[in-house]
Amino acid sequence: MWSPPGPSLLTTFQELLRAQQRFLLTGHENPDGDCLGAETALYHLLKALGKQVVICNPDPIGKAHDFLLQHTPFGHVRGDQPLPPFDVAVLLDCSQLSRVGHIGERLRASGKTIAVIDHHIGSDAGDGTVCYVDPKAAATGALVRRLYRLFDVPLNAAAAEGIFLSLVSDTGWFRYSNADAEVFAMASELVAAGVDGSAVYDRLYRRNHPDCAALLADALQRHRLRCGGRLAMVTLDKQLMERASRADFDTDAVLDPLRSLEGVEVVALIKERFDGGVKVSLRARADVDVQRVAAAFGGGGHKKAAGASIRMPTAEAEQAIEAEVLRALHAGGVKLP
């Protein structure tokens, strides 16, 4: 169970939120449920504190998460559109301006304070000058929930739904090993406060485009087993990625079916990018540290869930990823058949 942190951890962050008036909240490209849920909750906390606040992401909110628009305004900017006026930019669920896409360089050039709320390893060494980072937290939304307690602000319905979304997104609906006592205590509290978990699930997963079933089947058929069956690797080429974009298909849907295969310890999802590189998402089952695999390519994340963008042709990236996973398997004591 979480207990309030010592003064050295949060005093500066609290002082920043109290002292400044105009806040811009943003997160990584293609924001996921943790990022969007944490932004939702922080937006309503700052509003309750009498602040001016806008959410401005590098990408628009997707269909799966558009139910948040019922209570929270999400904005995004493209090209040379001006940013809203702000005194402090808060990065949620990421810590590097490079992960905020085209917004990142404008935030850097603004000269304004960059704050970070994140739970990824190494986030305290990112681009934030004021940080609230806890790699042991299951989700960024859990950190925002702690801030509500520290400021003695009650959760409203919108904030509660946002935090719930964060928790279920990053714990796989409480199936992953990071679903600790704090997560279940928060979930119980949020449901008691009126969050309808069944409704959230339906909005996330039961409004899929009719093409999504075929896309999932096509993607899964492309998987290969490597490293003696310990690595399941699937590569999605540009053509499939275009189909996925048109259907708003979440390509990460292939990860869990592959991770469920007997003998598989690591899943690597490789997606071709239109700039000539690839993006890789990594998942692990037991003692393999995929964060170290991602770090070898300049990425990061958590021990069991990580990712990176790699500037090399697909075939070369596949070989490089397989080699790093093999090293991680050996380091984790996993025996190959």
The largest sheet is: 6 strands, parallel
Largest beta sheet: what is the strand line-up? Answer: 3-2-1-4-5-6
Strand content: 15-25%
Low-confidence stretches: 1-7
List the total number of helices: 12
The overall number of domains is 2
Compressed to H and E, one letter per element, the order equals HEHEEEHEEHHHHHEEHHEEHEEH
End-to-end gap:
40 Å
Report what the structure shows:
There is one protein chain. The protein is α/β, with parallel strands linked by helices. It has two domains: 198 residues, inorganic pyrophosphatase (n-terminal core), CATH 3.90.1640.10; 120 residues, Diaminopimelate Epimerase, Chain A, domain 1 (Roll). The protein has twelve helices and twelve strands. The strands form two sheets. The protein has a six-stranded parallel beta sheet with strand order 3-2-1-4-5-6, sandwiched between helices. β1, α2 and β2 form a beta-alpha-beta unit. α2 packs parallel to α4. The radius of gyration is 20 Å and the shape is globular. The termini are far apart. The N terminus is likely disordered.
Q: What distinguishing features does this structure have?
A:
disordered N terminus; 12 strands; 18% strand; single chain; alpha/beta; inorganic pyrophosphatase (n-terminal core); Diaminopimelate Epimerase, Chain A, domain 1
Summarize the topology.
Layout (H helix, E strand, L loop, with lengths): L6 H13 L2 E6 L5 H16 L3 E6 L17 E2 L11 E5 L9 H9 L2 E6 L11 E4 L6 H11 L6 H14 L10 H12 L4 H9 L6 H10 L2 E3 L4 E6 L1 H10 L7 H5 L6 E7 L5 E7 L5 H6 L4 E2 L3 E6 L3 H18 L6
Parallel strand pairs: 1-2, 1-4, 2-3, 4-5, 5-6, 8-9
Antiparallel strand pairs: 7-8, 9-10, 10-12, 11-12
